[in-house]
Automatic annotation (TrEMBL):
GO terms for molecular function: transaminase activity. Its EC number is 2.6.1.1. PANTHER family: ASPARTATE AMINOTRANSFERASE, ASPARTATE AMINOTRANSFERASE, CYTOPLASMIC 2-RELATED. Homodimer. Residues 86-394 form the Aminotransferase class I/classII large domain. InterPro entries: Aminotransferase_I/II_large, Asp_trans, PyrdxlP-dep_Trfase, PyrdxlP-dep_Trfase_major, PyrdxlP-dep_Trfase_small. It holds the Pfam family Aminotran_1_2. It comes from Bos indicus. It comes from the Eukaryota. This is aspartate transaminase. Its cofactor is pyridoxal 5'-phosphate. Belongs to the class-I pyridoxal-phosphate-dependent aminotransferase family. Transmembrane segments: none annotated. Gene3D superfamilies: Aspartate Aminotransferase, domain 1, Type I PLP-dependent aspartate aminotransferase-like (Major domain).
């Protein structure tokens, strides 16, 4: 190849600024490069401070000097001592893994630990379920609670270009919309929490589906908590089928909603039985109490095995670019527990205990609000499932809930 030749000129640019223009001529191409001060990327010194994500409620809590204070909006399950809950079986398993001399800590495959992915699928659908037996379900080990959405959004952006509209539908505000927005999707966010009647309203979900355009993506959270009647299930399936809506489910804490792992994921069987293809973000950090590990799976369900293999091959390429090799500590812990019947039984009992404690706390808060004469009915607190619930509070009763929180804390001592 011949050596490149370069010529340079100084030209007068816009607003009197000097530009350095270089022309490089090689054997194959002519390349013009123009460098100008007004076209340069912004200097790091001019990058603004990002908006703080910490809410005013947490700030008020931190500023309160009451020694008996308790913050009810944490994203993790807390013990009576104010520490994050960790399943007892996890602690034992972590020690066993640390003392295992056979581990070589080699890089994991891009798709993650095969045994972990299979154990996760069995937990979600059941080992003998139709979709598992027919090899129509697969998965990729993901990093963090949002890794599955990052990976799934990459795939949809590249291979489903006709589906560039995303609806985020849940009972609460979800962070997933930011991921889709950053990738250029048009995002609409809706909730099926009825703040007027303080309940989850399935009709609100159905209404969003009715008005959604053909071929869009539906990211659905808290689906297991939305109690649909058989006729509403039929209506929902019919609408989504006729509009060719692609579901992308979020299951962030299977087992912590009702205490029953199978019940919390039962709604997926409706979609499998009706021939839907879908993605599902399955996070296993919260229900094992290993929040710092960020372990999860992007679950893929297709109509046949050949399509599944093609989709997984593309997801592997995206995963290679995003994180290459997922970490293994959390995945090893979870796999060890799920593949050992005795350890899995102990873990299931610990989940039931957490749910019982959550319900007991809700009962105490509701009863204290009643004793304080707080206006309104508070039955909705105990009617909601899961570790997180809407209290339905207005500003004028803030002092009442503060007293209720202190009372609950004192009664657990």
């Amino acid at each position: 190849m011949a050596a490149a030749k370069t010529w340079s000129w100084d030209l007068q640019g816009q607003r009197g600024q000097q530009r350095d223009v270089r022309v490089e001529l090689s054997e194959h191409c002519l390349l013009f490069v123009c460098l100008a001060p007004d076209l340069q990327p912004p200097h790091p010194a001019y990058v603004p401070m990002a908006q703080k994500l910490e809410g005013s409620l947490l700030k008020t809590y931190k500023q309160d000097d009451n020694p008996n204070k308790m913050f009810l909006a944490y994203k993790v399950c807390m013990t009576s001592k104010g520490r994050p809950w960790v399943s007892s079986v996890v602690r034992k398993t972590r020690m066993q893994i640390a003392q295992d001399p056979s581990l070589n800590y080699e890089y994991t495959p891009v798709m993650g630990m095969k045994s972990f992915v299979q154990a996760s699928l069995n937990l979600l659908f059941g080992k003998n379920s139709q979709v598992i037996v027919e090899n129509r379900a697969g998965g990729v080990q993901t990093v963090g609670d949002s890794g599955a959405f990052q990976l799934g959004a990459q795939f949809l952006k590249s291979w489903c270009q006709s589906s560039q509209i995303v609806y985020i539908v849940s009972s609460q505000k979800e962070p997933h919309g930011l991921i889709f927005q950053d990738m250029g999707f048009t995002v609409y966010e809706h909730t099926f929490w009825d703040s007027a009647h303080l309940c989850l309203d399935p009709n609100m979900l159905l209404d969003v589906v009715k008005h959604a355009p053909h071929g869009c993506v539906f990211v659905i959270g808290s689906m297991g908590n939305c109690q649909l009647t058989p006729s509403q299930w039929t209506q929902l399936m019919t609408l989504m089928k006729s509009k060719e809506i692609f579901p992308f489910f979020d299951i962030p804490y299977q087992g912590l909603s009702t205490g029953d792992l199978e019940e919390d994921a039962r709604f997926l069987h409706y979609f499998v039985s009706q021939g839907f293809e879908f993605f599902c973000s399955q996070s296993l950090s919260k229900n094992f109490g290993i929040y710092d590990e960020g372990v999860g799976t992007l679950v893929v369900v297709t109509l046949d095995n050949q399509l599944l293999l093609r989709v997984l091959s593309q997801l592997m390429n995206f995963a290679r670019a995003l994180w290459l090799n997922p970490p293994t500590t959390g995945a090893r812990i979870i796999t060890s527990v799920l593949c050992n019947p005795a350890m899995q039984g102990e873990w299931r009992q610990s989940l039931e205990g957490v749910v019982e404690n959550v319900m007991m706390t809700k009962e105490k808060v509701k009863e204290k609000l009643r004793l304080l004469g707080t206006p309104g009915s508070w039955d909705h607190i105990t009617e909601q499932k899961g570790s997180h619930s809407y209290l339905g509070l207005n500003y004028y009763i803030t002092s009442s809930i503060n007293e209720a929180v202190c009372f609950t804390k004192d009664s657990e001592r």
